[in-house]
Amino acid sequence: MSVHTISLLSFIIVISFISKSSANSENSFYYFCDQNNDRGNYTANSNYATNLNNLLSTLTSNTKINYGFYNSSYGQNTDKVNAIGLCRGDIKPEECRGCLDQAKANLTQLCPNRKEAIGWYQDEKCMLRYSDRYIFGHNETGPAYYMWNMNNATNADKFNGVVNNLLDTLRSKAALGDSRRKYGEGNAVVPSNKTVYGVVQCTPDLSEEECDSCLVESIKVLPSCCNDKIGARIVRPSCYLRYETSFLFYDPSAQSPSPSPSLTPSSPKGDAPSPSPSLLPPPAPAPKNNDIPSPLSLPPSSSLTPSSEGT
Questions:
Q1: Can the peptide bond before residue 143 be classed as cis, meaning omega within 30 degrees of 0?
Q2: Of 48, 65, 74, 247, which cross-links 55 as Cys (Cβ 3.0–4.6 Å)?
Q3: pTM for the model
Q4: How far, in Å, are 93, 155, 194 from residue 230 at the CA level?
């Protein structure tokens, strides 16, 4: 699979696995289509297309969900579509639904006729994925990408140690979450008395062990991709981690969810209107933290290489 690089202002965009990026700071959208067409295509007037439109248009319709996780299916047999919508744990319900509404219109437009696709929108405030295969409760580490800040930390060894300890603490917290939210956020003081802020998250349909495993693999990658960097993130379908120094990128006032969790994917019933297509927002200046994206290749027990990872 080929890798293409495009420059936009000072921000580098990497396109791979038929993935493309819109480097628009708060409106950035990183997405992956099924390049090898393993899942096949659907046609515009097919049952699969109808089911996909119905599923995406109703995915966030349950306004009682205030924990940012939507998992649902629509259709029967080979025309059945499965979808997951996940918002970062600090994102408020209304903002979460708005993010996913924008993501679903963009993803179907940017991956036309593909049965499987995944995208992260608004600086990873939300993730949307869908497929004709069963995607619930599986630890999936690809496709994935990582990004890093161009600036190096002072007293790097101590800095890296503080970051690793912080992420390990948050990893344990996230893995112990329930079927509504597996999320951890926190901060620590690094050399030069600066604060490093961190977030880790798993899709809450994972078990404690699967969540822990996904995050452990991501933390292990940091020395290979982002060593000594004052900010970095690793983004996968099943888990996410990010840290930034002197840069609070999440809302620490977010409240814990209150409704009882739903342990199985819901299935919307009846017809629903198809989402209206919308274009990606226009380019904007590069993010303040100067993060650079790169595709991620993480086969088990192997070294990191700059190529995209499949599912």
A1: yes
A2: 74
A3: 0.78
A4: 30, 11, 10
